[in-house]
Amino acid sequence: MSGIAIKRNDFVVVTAGKEKGKKGKVLRVLRDKDRVIVEKVNFIKRHQKPSSGQKQGGIIEREGTLHLSNVMLFCEKCGKGVRIRRQRLEDGHVVRLCAGCGESFD
Length: 106
Ligand SMILES: [Zn+2]
Known about the structure:
Elements: E1 11-14, E2 23-30, E3 35-38, E4 43-48, E5 58-63, E6 65-67, E7 71-75, E8 80-82, E9 84-88, E10 94-98
Antiparallel strand pairs: 1-2, 1-7, 2-3, 3-6, 4-5, 7-8, 9-10
The protein binds zinc ion (ZN).
């Protein structure tokens, strides 16, 4: 898998599933599961048990995970989700470029 394709704080668009078309910032990348959590996308309801801090439990909504294959980096210039091209710089760093317009994401 292209493990470093998407990183925390990247801006992505959902390309499949019920959240298709939604955009947001990547909050977390779960590399071992190939999943990401995107801000304000894919809300799921969770039951919260009463804890010492709160007298009663309840239902909270929070972001669920999305599979990496269902999100793409969003390119502002192209105005859509794009494929990534990698380029190794002279200093050895590898940057991610938009395969469409060449804009750098790093
Ligand atoms: Zn682009």
